[in-house]
Amino acid sequence: MRRFVAAIDQGTTSSRCIVFDRSGRIAGLAQREHEQLFPRPGWVEHDAETIWRNTEFVIGAALEDAGASAADIAAAGITNQRETTLVWDRTTGAPIHPAIVWQDTRTAALCEDLAGTVGTSRYADRTGLPLSTYFSGPKLRWILDNVEGARARAEAGDLCFGTMDSWILWKLTGHHLTDVTNASRTMLMNLETLQWDSQICAEFQVPVSMLPQIRSSSEVYAEISTGPLSGVPVAGILGDQQAATFGQACLSPGEAKNTYGTGNFMLLNTGTTPVFSKHGLLTTVCYRLGDQPAVYALEGSIAVTGSLVQWLRDNLGIVDSAAAIEPLARSVDDNGGTYIVPAFSGLFAPRWRPDARGVITGLTRFVTKAHLARAVLEATAFQTREVIDAMRADAEAENLGLELTTLKVDGGMVANELLMQFQADILDVPVVRPVITETTALGAAYAAGLAVGYWSGTDDIRANWAEDKVWRPSMPDDERERLYAEWNKAVERTYGWAD
Ligand SMILES: Nc1ncnc2c1ncn2[C@@H]1O[C@H](COP(=O)(O)OP(=O)(O)OP(=O)(O)O)[C@@H](O)[C@H]1O
Ligand SMILES: [Mg+2]
User: Fold this and answer.
1) Which of 70, 248, 416, 461 is the most buried (most CB within 10 A)?
2) Rounded CA gap, 67 and 69, in Å?
3) CATH superfamily of domain region 4-240
4) What is the pLDDT of residues 395-453, one digit of tens each?
5) Residues within 5 Å of ion ligand 2 by Cβ?
C-alpha cells in the first residue's frame, strides 16, 4: 500500500505542500510565499499564475523532502484561502484579471445596492451569510462589470469562475469543480440544496454556466495529469478553515477550533442541520464526506490578526520578523493603556461594520513600541473573545451544547506563547495546542485519504489527534473585565470612519 497522502494548502500568504503519513505526522514539507498586491486603499489582489507556479514548485519540493515519488502517494487533497475570486478563459486558461482576495473591500457600494431595501440579511436565510465584501459572489459580479468584454464572454460560455481550489484543480487535472465548503462562501449556493441558487445568481447577474460543478469534500474528483504527482487522484477539497476543523477532529456537534493565521476563524460543528446565528456569526458547510449528509458549522470570521503582526513588521518596521514580536512584547508588563483595533477591511464577526477603519487608542507620551507590540497581540485575543461570546449566546439560544471546556487552537500565531497565555486569561478557558499545528493541510489530507481508503474512517482522525501544550487562565476576574471593557471602548472609536 502507498505510504503517504499529500495536501496542497494554497493560502493567503503562501502556498504549501505537505506529505503526511498514516499517523498524521509530517513526512515532507515545502512552502513559498507570494506577493500581496495593494493597488489602491482597500484593494487586495494576488497573481494567480504566480500562485500556480509556486504550487508546482512546492509539490516537487515536498516530495523531495519526504524522499517520495508519485508512486508513494495514495491521494492528494486541496485546501485553500477561501472566497478569493478568479475568472479565467476556458480555452487558453489565462486569468482575465488578478485574483480578488477575500480581504478586498472594492465591492462595498455593490453590496449596498444588492442589499436594497431589505438590508444585508437579504440572502441570509438561503446562504447563511450577510451581504459583505468578504464573499466571492460580489467580487465575481465586479469582474463581470469592470473587465472589458467579460460579461459577453461569460454569457457565451468562454469564462470559468473559481475560488483557488478550483483554479488549482483545473491546473492539475483540467476539471472545473469545487466542493460544498468553498461553494458555501460565494453567496450563490443554497445551503439546503447544496446547489447554485438560480434566483440569487440571476439577481447577482452571474451566468450559472461559468460556475464550477459542486461536489462533496471527500471523493475522487480526477487524476493529476501534470508534474511530479501525475497519476495521483485528487480526492479531497476543503476551504482552509473547514479543513482545519476537520484536521482538529472537531467531528461531533459542539466541538470547535480556532485558527490563528492571517485572520482568525473559529468554527463550531453543529451537525447535519444548519443553525442560523442571531449574534453575528456565519452559517457555513463544515464538510461533506462522499454521499453522506453535509455537516454544518457556525463560524466567527475575524479579518485581521496575524496580518496585524505583518503590518507591524512590514509597514511600521517595528520588528524584523513575526517571531520577534514576542520578546519585544514581553519586555513590558502590560499594554500601557494602548489598544489597536485593526479594522483594515471594516470589522467582520460578530460586528459586521464595513464603515469601521483601524484605530490606535489610549496613546500617551508613556507608550513605547513594546506596548504597541503587546497591543497587537492582545487585539487577536480580544477579537476572539467577542466571537466566543457570540458563539456562547447562539449555543445557549439554540440548545447546541457548545463544549467549550477547552479551546483547540492552531495556525502560525499559536507559536506565540505570550499570546496563548493572554488568550486563556481573556477567555477564562484553557487553550490547547495539538502536536500538529498544520491542521489545515492535515484536514485536506484526511479528506483525500478517507476517499481512497488510506484511512478507514473518521475514528482514525480522532485517534491521531494529540495534545502538545495547554495554557490555563490565571488572570483575576476584575482585571479581565477591565481590559475587555477598555477594548470595547476602543472598538467603538472605529465606527463611521469610511463613508
Ligand atoms: N511567533 C509569532 N507571533 C505572532 N504572530 C506570528 C508568529 N509567527 C507567525 N505569526 C503570524 O502568523 C501568520 C501566519 O500563520 P499561518 O501560516 O497559519 O497563516 P495562514 O493564514 O495559514 O497563511 P495563509 O493565509 O497563507 O494560509 C502570519 O500573519 C504571521 O504574522
Ligand atoms: Mg492557512
Assistant:
1) 248
2) 7
3) ATPase, nucleotide binding domain (3.30.420.40)
4) 888 777 766 778 899 999 999 999 999 999 999 999 999 998 889 999 999 999 999 99
5) 11, 240, 261, 440
